[in-house]
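retry 2 of 3: previous attempt timed out while embedding pyridoxal-5'-phosphate. Reduced batch size to 1 and resubmitted. Inputs unchanged:
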Amino acid sequence: MSEPVNVVELEAQYLLQNYARHPIVIARGDGPYMWDVNGKRYLDFIAGIGVNALGQNHPRIVAAIQDQAARLIHTSNLFYNEYQGPLAKRIAETSGLARTFFTNSGTESIEGALKMMKAHGHAISLEKFEIVSLENSFHGRSLGALSITGQPKYRKDFEPLLPGARFVLSNDIAALEAAVTERTAGICIEWIQGEGGVNPVDHAFLRRARELADKFDALLCFDEIQCGVGRTGKYYGYQLVDPPIMPDIMTAAKPIACGVPLGIIAANERAAQAIRPGMHGSTFGGNALAARVALEFFDVLDGLLPHIGSVGGYFKSRLQELARRFDFIGEVRGYGLMLGVELKIPGKEITARAMQNGLLMNCTHDTVLRFLPPYIINDQHVDEAIEILTRVMASV
Ligand SMILES: Cc1ncc(COP(=O)(O)O)c(C=O)c1O
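retry 2 succeeded.
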């Protein structure tokens, strides 16, 4: 018998040392549960950072992957496949945005959206290249995405980045009015900041961003990579706003193919015409496997949206109960199954102890417990998570 492989040691020796992983090696999953290599069970309330929308091992996703893998995985975008067209149609019907470009990740979606905004500005004037985004936002790790990410800790080692990025504080309408000018090519808003601590932006601010984009002929982009595609109980987060505010561009990714890498840029005709043949592309983006799985996911999601709203409401009310019980808890924020709990103490210890007690979750921005569970959880799963959290919180 060969020695068991110690993946932790191998990673320490052979991987770039950029991740601070939790000391758990996950071996398999079923629904909202996962098991580590030692057979310990965890309730998964972070879902691969908002990716595993239907949990693990969902029969329809498994069947779609198995069937498609046996037929055709990838052809490149030199050829058509059977799924990109129907999937783009579903995205247009659900989002109100006419055209889609397929990518492989959130960052790539932002990168393409940036090119769309820049090309739009370029076609009007060489001086129209500025992008306005929010302080405390997170848009990804590529140089373009970092340029508009409003957190210096992510940018500082790589500066100078793209010229023309301007940051404004969320909800500071006067600052937004000062930042958006004739030089603005696009306004890019992560309107429910995820990594930044689950902070929704006020609807009045979004509405003013829409007006300013129209006034100065800039494109308005909503980054829905974390909050989009069902997470809030709506297809897309901006549909929570009444009356809805339409962006010109929307980026989404995480849950859209349930763990098979896929991202999208959805755009109205005005934004889409900025990209002409040859100006953008991807080898893998929208390959047959990813697009087929996403189509399957949309079919399941249609029936799941009301459930996301109701189980999310129940979860939020149970978190608010915790907030009444423990005085180190501040605000409970978020929509649907994207919820954050602001603490008055660091959250790292609570997260670590919750994991030891069988609940996978995440702490972001040092003091915000972030929950992005799979959409298939029910009230009993919520009760189980609250029971673990109560025990952990009573012990800190
Ligand atoms: C709002 C937002 N934008 C962009 C990204 C980057 O996406 P990815 O990690 O898939 O490249 C993330 C990832 O957390 C995100 O939450």
